[in-house]
Structure formats: C-alpha cells, structure tokens
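Hi everyone, sorry if this is the wrong subforum. Our group has a chain we'd like a structural model of before ordering constructs, and none of us has done structure prediction before. Sequence below.
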Amino acid sequence: MQIAIVGLGRMGMNMCFRLLLKRHKVVAYNRSPEKTKLVVRKGAKGAYSLEDLVKMLKPPRVVWLMLPAGETTDDHIRRLKTLLSKGDILVEGGNSFYKDDLRHAEELKPYGIHYVDAGVSGGIWGLKIGYCLMIGGEKRMFHYLEPIFKALAPKDGYLYCGTTGAGHFVKMTHNGIEYGMMSAYGEGFELMQASPYGKALDFGKVAHLWNQGSVVRSWLLELAESAFKKDPHLSSLKGYVEDSGEGRWTVQQAVELAVSAPIISASVFQRFRSRKADTFSDKILAALRNEFGGHAVVKTGRKGKK
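Answer:
Right subforum, don't worry. Here is the predicted structure as tokens:
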C-alpha cells in the first residue's frame, strides 16, 4: 500500500522504516531535507514540499501526519486541504487533543477528505517492537487502512475505538495512566533509597526482580532496569520532568465529566513541582521518559558511576 509520512521525528522516521520493512511504499517529507534524505537511503521516495508529496501519490491518497500537536499540525492540515482531493485520507498520528480532531474533521468535510485520528504509543522502541495504535474516525476508513495498521503494530496491537476523536481520547487516557504509574514507581524507589537498606540495594536488580512474576511487572520496570544499569543512582540526571500535554488534558476531562482521578491529577502536579526541586523519584520519571521516548533530560554534569 502507498502512504505518505509527514514529520520524521523520533517516531515518524521509525514508522517509515517499519513500513518499508513490511514492503509498503512510503513517500516521506520533513521540513528539514536532511531527514528526508536519510529515509530515502532506506528505500522511501523523498518529497521536498507538500505540493510534490501530493503529486507523488496515487488516489486515493493517504497522508499520515506525525507532527507536534497544536499550531504545527493545524498549519499542515490547512495547507493539505487545498492540495488533496475528494476521497483522499488524512491520518493525524500526533498527540493531539480529541476536540481538535472534531474541528479538523469538520474543516476537511467540505473538501471530501476523510479524517482519521490515530493515537500512537511505542516511542523509540516502536521500530523493533511495533506501535500500539488507537484509531478513531469512519469505520470503513479504518478497514481500508488496516494493512498499514497491521504493519505498524505488533499482534493485537491496534484497535478501532470509535468515531472521530475516539482514538486520541483513548491515547490521552493511556498517557494519563502512564503518568500515575511512573510516579508510583518513582515514589517506591525513593522510599527504598531513603531506607536503612538503600545504600546496599541494587535498584536495577530490584526492577529486574519485580518483572519476574510480580503483580507490578511492566515494560516501565524493564526501562527502569535499563536506566539503572547505565547509571545506578541516576546521578547524571536532574529530577526535572516535562509534560507534553496529555496528562493535563486527562485531568481537565476528569473535571468536565465529574470523574474522580486523584492519582493522575497528583502525578501531573508532581511534574510541575519537579521543575523547582530535584528528588530521586523525579529522577526516575526523567529516566523513564528518556528510555521509552527519547525525551530530553536535564543533565547534572556528573557521570553515572557503575
């Protein structure tokens, strides 16, 4: 199947590579041509403007956006709606707010362009493991694009969640839960560090142990183990933790829907506090975000000692 990927960041580029490995035809575009050339060397066709990208696709065209949520995505949709044709499909795979999906779908409707929202999880590990995909939009568009979803996802790794916005709503909730899980792990390891046994404990081995049949086992613990192997006390990191918006939106929706979400809410506020403090639990959060998503961390200037 032919598909265009717009946005070759940490995830967009690896999605191109995975689709190429599964023998799909990929047209790639990025604002900076260097990244486009890198994907071309792996077998994709390179487009160096949105106009060229649309010309290189056969109708019905499929364009998948992997761009930062907000103005960048809005701008690309504004431009593409005048370039694409009736019957073409635009997939929005960034971490957008679901209410923006409703607006985008309405914006494209007069042009006859189908809109699909795709929540994507998998971070920098998606190329090897596959991406978890949460899909919203017209069900017949979901079925049409299913070969792409199968190529990107592991077995049972994609789901039609419902009408427009459902995919990003489920992804938003997923990320809110992720915030809470990461905070709980961070607090637990800080508690162990502060205990009389903290100096003797090998946190990497504890993380590994808990993944052997424990009820708290998870991929996040595997990532914690990886981070501790690189830096046993996370001394090279500051406990400064950014948030990319989904946690805030989850809390806002909990308020709007009168749903009690104290754990997720507290985890969002913890990230705000982390920017004025430097605790071990926040170092855990920073390390985990770097491990699964390649998100930037703030370094202390000290090297981790093994």
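For your construct planning: The chain is about 50% helix and 15% strand. The first strand starts at residue 2 and ends at 6.
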